[in-house]
Backbone:
């Protein structure tokens, strides 16, 4: 009887010890989490690790430094560890003349921002500019007059295609010393362009490269001597082209 009572008493003691151990571990875990949470909140405070400097890299032909500073200021006030890196990048890229931005922290108190500025290659007739990649962007204002860049036109969403075609055609016309001032693809996907001489070319929808090449090959003999009297050249023929004369001619 005494042995049985002693065994039960010993078992109860062991259960109490295990309970105390688990309770102690739980309390330690809770305390650890509380300390981590407190430390995290303390570190995230802007006064704990303030941003001491901002390093900006990139070209600044059209990007306004003051406008960029105003975009960055609300984020910088959050402190070094509180910086919203994705938010900073998105906000900087919303500036019209910024094509792409990258941001990173520099320990212990600096923010680095790198920007790639848009490089306008053409004017889009419906509004805005086209960069070298065929991407459209719409700045509120720009310093370049429309006459300094070729004017492109096409259905919505064809900016990249029209820009690619412009580049191909320009390469073909280099031998003539001519450049394109206007290039248009209409809703039927037919192409029309105008050269810096004022001469217009109608290329239609098919065999665009072959038709323009035919024009280049016959230019010196058939076109150049009569250039001032020709309104446009219609290249939408299988083996030749038609000429429309100016009214004054």
Residues:
């Amino acid at each position: 009887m005494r042995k049985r009572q002693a065994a039960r008493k010993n078992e109860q003691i062991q259960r109490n010890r295990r309970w105390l151990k688990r309770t102690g571990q739980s309390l330690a875990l809770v305390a650890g989490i509380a300390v981590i949470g407190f430390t995290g909140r303390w570190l995230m405070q802007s006064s704990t690790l303030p941003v001491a400097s901002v390093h900006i890299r990139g070209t600044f032909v059209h990007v306004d430094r003051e406008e960029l500073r105003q975009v960055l200021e609300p984020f910088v006030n959050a402190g070094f560890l509180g910086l919203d890196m994705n938010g900073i990048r998105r906000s900087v890229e919303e500036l019209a003349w910024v094509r792409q931005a990258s941001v990173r922290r520099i320990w212990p108190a600096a923010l680095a921002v790198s920007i790639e500025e848009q490089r306008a290659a053409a004017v889009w007739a419906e509004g805005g500019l086209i960069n070298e990649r065929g991407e459209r962007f719409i700045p509120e204002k720009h310093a370049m007059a429309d006459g300094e860049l070729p004017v492109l036109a096409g259905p919505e969403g064809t900016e990249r295609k029209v820009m690619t075609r412009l580049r191909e055609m320009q390469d073909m016309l280099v031998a003539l010393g001519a450049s394109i001032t206007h290039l248009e693809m209409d809703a039927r996907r037919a192409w029309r362009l105008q050269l810096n001489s004022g001469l217009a070319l109608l290329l239609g929808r098919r065999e665009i490269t072959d038709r323009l090449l035919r024009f280049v090959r016959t230019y010196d003999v058939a076109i150049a001597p009569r250039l001032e009297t020709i309104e446009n050249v219609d290249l939408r023929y299988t083996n030749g082209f038609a000429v429309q004369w100016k009214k004054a001619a």
